[in-house]
Structure formats: C-alpha cells, structure tokens
Amino acid sequence: MGSSDSKLQFKTMFSKLGENYIKHNDHNFWKMLFIQPLSIDDIFTVISPDDIRSLRKVQPANLGTIIYKCIEQLFLFSQPKNFFSESTSAKNSLHLLTRILPFVFEHDDDGFVSDLFFNNVLPGSANLLSVVGGATSSNQQVIEQEETSTNNTEQASSTEEPATTTTASDQKTETQTQQSTSVSSEQIEQVKQEIDQLKQKVEEKLENNNSNTPSEPAKKDEPPVEPVKEAPKVEEPKETPKPVAESSSGKKKKKKNKKKKGVKEEEKTVETSVSSTVAESNAEEQSETNEDASTEVTLSESPATVGDEQSTISQQEPQQIVEQEEKIEEQPVEQTQAVSAETTNNEASVSDEKKPLPILKIADMNLTSSLAEVMLQTLMRCLFLPDFTVPLGQFNEDNYISLKSDSLDENVLWQVGMGVPLTKGLRSASWEQMENRNDILRCLLTCFSSVLYRDAETCSEYDNKFLSLAVSDRMPHVHNLVYSLLNFVTAYDPRGSLPYSSQLFTDHYTQYIETSLHVLSVLLQHKPKGYANVYHTFFQQFRHTLDMTHLYSKMTLLLRNVVDSHNTYLPSSQKLIEFYEEVLLLLWLILGEAPIFRTFVCKELNITELLIPLLFIIQLHCKQVTKFPIVQLAAFTILLLSGNREFGVALNHPYKISTPLDVPVFEGNFADLLILFFNKIMVSDKGIIRGLYDCMLTIIANISPYTKSLSMLSSVKLLNLFEAFASPRFLYSSEKNHQFVALLLEVFNNIIQYQYEGNVHVIYSILRRGKLFKDLTQDPDLEPIKAAIMKKHEGKQGAEQPFIPTHEWVQSWRPKLPLYTITTLIDTLTPDVEKICSQEYALKRMLLCISKTQLLLVYCQCLIPS
Q: What is the pTM of this model?
C-alpha cells in the first residue's frame, strides 16, 4: 500500500490534468504519476469516476496523453534490454489503464476511442493552439501573460524582414542543401547581436532573483555570470531524463536537451564559431517547429531523420531562431525557481534509467501499428517477463527474443501440466509475480469490455476491435498464454485434506483462477470477421493424448466439487468453489472448438464422470430464474456431447453408483438415468425452463439409436411424457408445441428400427397406448379447443392474445409427423398381444410373441434380395 503522502501527491498531480493542458514532454510532471508506489486499490480510491468523466470532457487531450504514457511505459518495460528494470512505473501504468479505460468506453459518441487507439490521433487536438507543447484556447490569456517578458525582443525582431518558412514538400532536396550551407554575413552579425541581448537579459533576471532572496543578501555584488553557469547543473537531471529504452530518436532528443542547459553553452559557441551557433539554434528551432507545425498531430508520427532535420533547419530565418532561443533561455531559470526539496528526493529514489520517455517513442518503432495493437502486444509480452511474471531461474532470454506467436516455450509457462512434462521442474511464482499476472489479465479484460456499454439491440452486431486484434495472428505468446492459463486453472484441487479446512484458511488462488477463466472464455467466444480466431485454431489442432486426458480429468474434478459439496456427511465440511460456472463455460467452449478432444473423451475416457455433475447443476438451479443461463449451459453441453455416437454407446454402462440426483430408484444404465432425470425436470417445471424442453428431448433422440435396453420404469416414463405432450390441452396451446411430439416420435422410431430386440418394455408400452398414436393421424375437432382457450383467458386483462389453432396450421405439421413405422407396428402386433393377454401366463407369452415377431422380421429381411 502506498503511503498517505504518495497518494496525496498523486491526487494533486492528477487533478492538474483537468486544469490546463500538460505538455507531453513535461517529464517533471508525468513521471510523478508513475514513480509513486501505489497499489491498485490506492489508484481506484484516489481517482474517482467523476474525475475521469470530467477530464474527458474538459481536457480530452490530457486524457489521451496519459493513456499513451501508460502504454509507453509498459512498452519500454517489456523490451529485452529493460527486463530487470524497476517495475513501479509498469505497475502504475497497468492500474491506471484498468481504472481509466472503462470510462473511456462508456460514451464513445465523440470518436475518442477510434481517434486515439486506431487512428493514432490525439483527441481534442483541434482545440489546442499547439498539439505538442501547446495550450487550450481557454488558457490563452495565461500564455499571453507568461510571454509578456519577451515582448521587447519580439517587437524589435518584428521590424526586420519577415521570415518565410518552407517545407520539404515545397522545395526540392537540392535547394534545401544549398540553403543549409549559405548563411550571409549580415545574418551572422544579427545573430551575434541577438545573443548578446539574450545574455544581458538573463543576467538581469538573475540579479533580480538574487536581490529578492533574503537569505543571500551578499550575492548582490557578485558578478552575474557565475549563477548563469551553475543554473544548468541544477536542472540537468530534470531536463535530460535518461530513457528506459533508447532508439535513434532518443539520441536526437538528448542533443536537443543539451541545447536547453542555459547560456553557458551559448557563450562557448559564440566564442568558437558563429556558424556552429546558427546550426545549433536551427536545431532547436526545428524541434519546436515540428511540435507546433499543425493542430492535429497524430501519435504515429515519427521524428524526421538527421538529414531531414538539417535540410529543414536551413530554411528557418534568424529572426525566428532568436525568438525561439529566447524562450529556451528563459525556461531553465523559471524551472530553477520552482524546484522543491520534495521533488529532488523523489527523483533521487528513481534511477535515471527508469524515467519516462517523450511521446511518439512507440510510434517510432512501430510505424504501421495502431496504438491499440501496440497496447495488446505489450500486455501479452508483459505476461511472460522474467522476475515480473515468470520466476527468474527458469527464463531463457535467447528463446524468448526469437519466439513466434505459434511457438511454445516451456521455460516461460506458469505451471506444469499440458505442453510441459509433469516431471519438469518449474519454479513456483511468488505472490508478487502472481499479483502482476492478475493485474495484466484484468487490464486485458478491461480492454475487451467495450461491448458492455452497447445496447442489447446493437450488441450482437457490434465489432469489438480490441478483441478482434487480440485473437489475430499478430499477437505474440498465444500458445504460451493458452497453456499457462489452462495449467494454472487445472492445477487447483478443490478437495481439502481435512474437513472444514477451507473454513480455517483463506484461499488466495481462487481470485487468480477466476481471472484466468474469464480471459480464456472471452478469447474463445469471439469470432472475428475476415479471419480465423487463433485460439479456435489452437483447439482444433489439440490432439495430444496426454494433454487431452489431463484436461478432461482436471475439469471433471472441478465440476465434481459441486456434487461433493452438497453430498457430505458433515454439513459444509467441503467448500463449494465459486468459479464452477466459469469452468462449465470454458468446458463448453473447448468442446465446441475441439472435435478431436470431444470424440476422445466420449470414446476413450469415462464420460459418465462428467454427466453426473452436469445433471446435478441442472437440478440445483432449475427452479431459480436468475440461474437459468447456467442450466441452459449445462444442457447445451450434454446436447453437444450427444451428437457423438460414442456418447450414446457409453451410456449403456450399468448405473451402480449413488448420486444426489432426484430420480426414482431403478436398475438400469445411464440412458435410463438420463430419461428419468429429464422426465422429472419437465414434469415438475413451473415454466422456468420451458425453453429447454426441445433441448432435452433432442438429447434423448440423439442417444436413442444406440440405447440397447431401457428399463420398464424409464419406458413407462417416456410414454407418460409423450401422453402429456400429445394431449390436446398442451398440443394446441402454442404454435410450436407440436415439435415436442415430433421429437418423441423420432425416439420411438429409432428404438423400433435399431434397438427393437433389447427394448421390449418400450414396445409393450407403445402397444398399450396405441390410441394416442392413432388420434394423431386424424383431423382434430378444433371448436371445443378454441372455446377452452378463450375461456381460460377471459379474466386476464392486459395479457397477450392467446394462440388460436386453425385447420391450416394443423395441416402444416400433422402430415409431417413420423407415424408410419409406429402405426405399422401397432397394427401388426396388437391382435396377437390382445389374444395372448386373454390367456394364462399372458405376460410371458406376450414377450415371447414379440421376440418371435422380431425373428420373423429379421428372416424376412434376409429373404429380400439386395
């Protein structure tokens, strides 16, 4: 936790963002937002939502700049040369992005997000006098007051010949080269005079400052030149902050900062060579001219090369050079007066190698990338940095630098399991490293959260550009991220060593596992337009036997905790994990994207271990309206598995275990369990899961061709369910209720055609209720039905108009019902069954008759020529 002084200073600096436009290269200001040792709780406490909303409204350019600065710090921290740098600025950047971005996405009517992250344009730059180093129009009076000290020089220079500025696009390169080497003697003499004036003016200001200081009265009589020489030494560490990572543009900025140290270097320059003075002055003029060149500077703009700078420098007039140098000469003096002891101490606490860089640094190295892509790539790299998120002892820098997005590096994985042998010794991460991982993952989720601020009508069509970038092949460490998150989640064992151990100790891993599950689920759910999701591609190629076995067993263990926690001898002796819903969602997504894995678990592994937890979750929440999505997800997972033939075959295993499922006692297999359970859920439903009836009946229809034998109890329950759905009161009460009847008829047809011999109980139940099937072949009398429906809705005011069946509606679906096979069976076997039932030992003879009929059918099929 940060100290109260750090939080107060951070709050003060952040409040200044809403007052005036802060220059992007004002390092003394920006670094104070990154060097304070604050936790994420401190950041969320200090920065209120109203502060961010107000900042976006009043000073959008400052808000865009601080977002860029955060990304800049993370980018530089993730470079290989800075692996072992101090991480306070990177942590603060993560916390600031996590805090600010939700309010940036909240209202994007002004195009703030698209301008900053995808067009690389600083928001609000049109309202600035100068985008880089300028001020807002509301602060123009303040700027004018600060420039009153330079009016005399400006008026004097205004009488000279007006300067003309040319650009590279207006003149050819040869003309620029000639101008860069031709400086008249009159211009040289003029520069000398202006420099002398500047020296006198600075000396006068220093004398005035010394005369106003009561603690040093003896310095009035001292020569005024000595303080001028010492002034740059005081400001040198503030004016020339050393970058974390340095490129060619960074070296240029060092040269520019050296020109800002004061009059001392100017004096030496005048004494040695006038031509070098002009060149140095033009270099400074070029740096400031580039900053004030337009009112809409993009973040992707890169500094010019050295040759371009020299060619542009030669085009500046001496008058403009003198005016610009006057401002530069005054800046160290003014800043010297504002230096405090507290700021000096804060600077001493941070090494020169960890100070922030100017804006546009990232753009210099990624000219073709948007800021959003750079941010996501940087966050992905930060997930696998040595001593920040990965233990230092297992890191291999050579492999890391040459790693591609589709490569796997075992040395940076967070946990053993899939992708890395269990025998490989990976070091355990510290709590600080785990917290850093969690912060980065939460920042990624924040970047993906823009869809939460869309209306329900437009949400389905909304293109989440951040998420589309995250699932593209331009992201690094894709395989490392998938294996690390999966291994981290599956390594958790919810079973305690002793009863009530979860009540005695706090489990800190759960929050990290929840965040990992959220990130994986979001990445797997997204389907970008125009290209494939790299995470979908990964699971489509997921085929390693040991990895698939490990993933299934661990995911089943986590879901099994829901059953075990509700089925203990000692109440609440085992803790229920809070993230079992996220585990279920992730399992459903993986099964949907990994067909090889889905077939493998149904054929090679015990799929019934997964079936019991899924059914129990449905039973646990089927009467809660708020939990309907969880019930729906569990039902869809079973539906997805039922599409595989191996799943239906696996349900023929005998059911001999005891489970807390609310089903009658029976002797049979898991297919009986599935039918009895769905029958119980649908019969006792109060309308909460009405939308899942077709899903449950489809599951039964999918497994029916492979069900070798159903018990008498499940056969009777299946016919009872058909009777309830085929009754006129239910069948004609809704426009789509006939679909339930069609699905049950498909179940009976599959059993008759493929599993006739082993399902005599189903055949007998069909014969006993043959009238139900016969009634469906005849045209119904709709008048009594209409009268009953209207009478039911008479007393209801304001309710929706009830559905009224018509003969045209009945004729649209009744001829399509698959009744032929069933009616043929009824017509063939009913006379024999009735005859046998009238004699002694009726049941035994009936079963024998059915078996003989089956043999006769098989014999007849053999006689039919192929």
A: 0.71
